[in-house]
């Protein structure tokens, strides 16, 4: 948990996700303990390279936010800066999706509209925009 929290802190520009490493570790612990939905360990793999944790995806059974679909939800996906654009996010997303597909045909995530690199990746992998008004269609 501490290693994932440390990676979470390093993966974002200072202050974007958490203001301190201790805060990032506490946020990851909160995730593991269900504060953002029932944590799906089997759909939350990590990637280790040469003994260093370099990428992680965190998935819950259902996000706690009203404006999200009722399905497994990726609450975080992050990669160490030196390992980006190496396909690690693709591997993690595929593993998370594979883990939930036995019980649910959908998996969702949220992305900032200005993060064009992430949006391009998600669209390439088959993710599509979701709106509450489209539920059940």
UniProtKB/TrEMBL annotation:
Looking at the record, the residues that make up the N-acetyltransferase domain are 1-137
InterPro entries named among the record's database cross-references: Acyl_CoA_acyltransferase, GNAT_dom
**PROSITE patterns, alphabetized:** GNAT (PS51186)
UniProt-recorded Gene Ontology molecular function terms:
acyltransferase activity, transferring groups other than amino-acyl groups
Q: Fetch the Pfam families from UniProt.
A: Acetyltransf_1
Quote the protein name from its UniProt record: Unannotated protein
- Organism (species): freshwater metagenome
